[in-house]
Probable cytosolic iron-sulfur protein assembly protein 1
Amino acid sequence: MDADTPYKLVPVADLTGHDDRVWHVAWNPTKPLLATCSADKTVRLYSYTSAPDSVPTFSLHTSISTGHSKTVRALAWSPSGVTLATASFDANIGIWQRGREGEEEEGEEAAGDWECVCLLEGHETECKGIAWSASGNLLASCSRDKTVWVWEGTTSNSGSVTALRVQTHLPTAMADQDFECMGVLMEHTQDVKAVAWHPKEEILASASYDDTIKLYLDDPSDDWFCFGTLGGHTSTVWSIAWSPDGRYLASASDDRTIRIWKRVEEHKWECVSILEGHDRTIYSVSWGRGKAGSEGDEFLGWISSAGGDGRVNVWEMQEPPDSTTRTPPTHKLIARLENAHNVADVNCVVWCPRKGYDGLLATAGDDGTAKVWKIVPK
């Protein structure tokens, strides 16, 4: 049964077709496309009707046989929406763009073959997460090998990636003649589960099996460095998400809590709130803008969470009017959905970032499906 909440999540689309569990979903930020990836090693792209403020209709546009030899664990669109990155258990990262033939066809958002324009190699074992910076010039990846890599790219006027080089600390690795390897970030002591870029600054966060979150900056005179370790979770941190304004960071953990971290000094972040509402591991957290018309200094958006209990929760975040640096935001559970993927774990939940679709979110489950939901008043 749903909790006594003012909103509910109603089904919009049930996206089937994968032959194994679906690990991740990613909304294209500029086009009506939703990407899914699976243990079946494929990526599927779904298009949807583009009229804002209406319930969209989804249809399969194309399926990409990625060539990855193992599970495709995560994917991420560049901010321009032109390039898709895939992270695989085969330790490689694929960079995908639509072929020129498809680019010339007007009105066909995913027409033409999607081609792997480069393969980024360097991780020693399973890649678990991937994320683009807000500028689209930086790409971060993380792995079971306990490392985080920062890749620097060059984008064309169209937003496509024309060249990439890796920023690391290891002088020995060369992916091929197009890549220069400069080092890796080796701050975690265990498997790194997720990476996320600050929405307005080039600050990178990573989450790990070592129960911590690390924060990184680029020193113009040297290399990337870790400037903060956020500790407090008592078990694996599976997922992290920045607030849309970048003032807060949410983290989801195996300890069944979501922690809200706030910047209290230039390079210092503290936990100011703890959200509880799951009975098992929380695998995914996403922070969206929230409902249209709620913009303002006090409204911080909506947080969605999902995990091993099959539940999807939605929280409304508010900042008190007389907030100080360390004042915690208030949170209210506004929607709860039980058994989102029947009895299966929910591996991922993501809000749609496109304006006009603020109440739309997608989930991925162990049942081999991706699903789309819309939050509406009861």
User: Anything to note?
Assistant: Residues 7-377 form a domain with the Methylamine Dehydrogenase; Chain H fold (CATH 2.130.10.10). Residues 100-103 form the longest helix (4 residues). The CA atoms of residues 25 and 212 lie 24 Å apart.
